[in-house]
Amino acid sequence: MTVIGNVAGLRDATDPLAHLRERFHPVPEDAVYLNGGSLGRLPAATAALVDHVVQQEWGNGLAEARTQWFDLCERMGDRVAEVALGAHPGEVVVGDCTSVNLYKLAAATLDANPERRTIVTDDDNFPTDQYVLAGVAAERGGTLRRLHSHPDRGLDLDLLREAVDDTVALVSLSLVSSRCGALLDIAEVHRIAHAAGALVLWDLSHAAGAVPVDLAANGADLAVGSTYKHLFAGPGAPAFLYVRRDLQAVLRQPIHGWYGHREQLAMRIDYDPDPTIRRFLTGSPPILSLVATGAGLDVIAEAGLPALRAKSVALTGYLQELLEPTELRLAGPADPAGRGAHVTYEHPRAAELVPLLARRGVFVDHSVPNRLRLTPAPLSTRFTDVAEAASRIREVLEGNGS
Fold first, then answer.
1. Of 108, 180, 231, 256, which one has the fewest beta carbons inside 10 Å?
2. How far is residue 118 from each of residues 97, 140, 193, measured CA to CA in Å?
3. Phi, psi for residue 363 in degrees, rounded to 5
């Protein structure tokens, strides 16, 4: 075994989360999966959870089983709040997709504050977020103010301070940049926005389950996020939506449906929004995907976010160390503590490298136009996996692994 292999093996031997690797369905033999920022691995318990609902509840219970599901969005929301968000019970629901949830909360915020017509975001925010926010602003005769983010370092908060004035109703940003991985200072963003009388709407898709968020402790207003990345809920799984309790009675989301009605089953003609977090729901949720969310949350809860985050920082830092020097250029914060769970590199042939690496059993993500995003998920990735991946990446770069 090489010196690098010895070091990685020793780190694995003292890893307090090492046993949790077995809680996931195995990847193909000899594969190293570094693409958890796109789709989290399958928890081993997911199949049994879904099978129980299919066979026992739906199969044997038929339509009567629906009574067990009517509050599932809130129950799963409370679980996400507890395990991944640091939010209070009754402040999170799971249902719809991230884009729809973003639209609901952005529209509700502008409608509640008609004298303010401006939304602030940054030009490196996930494109769908920018589409949604631009649409909400245009529908209401407002403006989307895009700030320039450094492609490697993320948004400079001095720009945000200059941009947020008394015309701004909403600041909407991603806590962790989907491209470079830069982690924003959540408390400072709140201070800037709140001082100007604006609310903050976070996209936590690359943060939830990857970094401690602590929405309640940080006085967060609003948030949405994906469950299929670091929460392991599976492809197409519904997103979560967070609204601080004191804002729930103030905001009225625009997509009215029976799941958000005060008397959901009364089938009344006029819409009367529920006074609780339920008012932000719309239609029937995807029950099987909702149930699947529970398996990943159980593993995260067992690990604890502080330990999970500590290992994530160590893994990406180790990967960064092993890939120096190469022709890859680090395209994110140099300090592992200043980014989320992924590390980004720039290479002129990034799109070509992804399939070459896949042939060598290393699965990474391509971020346009010329970046590679590597996400060693701490619950299922060993230090020896990272060492092996770095060795194969070097071989491909040197032309020996194609």
1. 256
2. 24, 10, 12
3. -105, 115
Question: pLDDT tens digits, residue range 226-264?
Answer: 999 999 999 999 999 999 999 999 999 999 999 999 999
Catalytic residue (one of 373, 382, 383, 392):
373
Residue among 179, 182, 117 nearest 154 (CA): 182
User: 345 an active-site residue?
Assistant: no
Of 24, 228, 280, 363, the catalytic one is 228
> What gap in Å lies between CA 258 and CA 388, rounded to an integer?
52
Active site residue 126: yes
Helix (H) or strand (E) run with residue 49 in it: helix 46-52
Catalytic residue among 11, 79, 145, 229: 229
> Any catalytic annotation for residue 228?
yes
In whole angstroms, give the CA distance from residue 91 to residue 103: 18
CB distance 244 to 91 below 8 Å? yes
State yes or no: is 373 an active-site residue. Answer: yes
Cβ neighbours for 259, distance < 8 A, ≥ 6 positions apart: 73, 95, 278, 281, 282, 283, 284, 285
pLDDT digits (tens, 9 = 90+) for 173-205: 999 999 999 999 999 999 999 999 999 999 999
CA atoms within a 13 Å half-sphere pointing along the CA-CB vector of 292: 27
Please say whether the dihedral angle defined by the alpha carbons of residues 231, 315, 148 and 162, taken in this order, is positive or negative. positive
104-140 per-position pLDDT tens digit: 999 999 999 999 999 999 999 999 999 999 999 999 9
Q: Catalytic annotation on 104? A: no
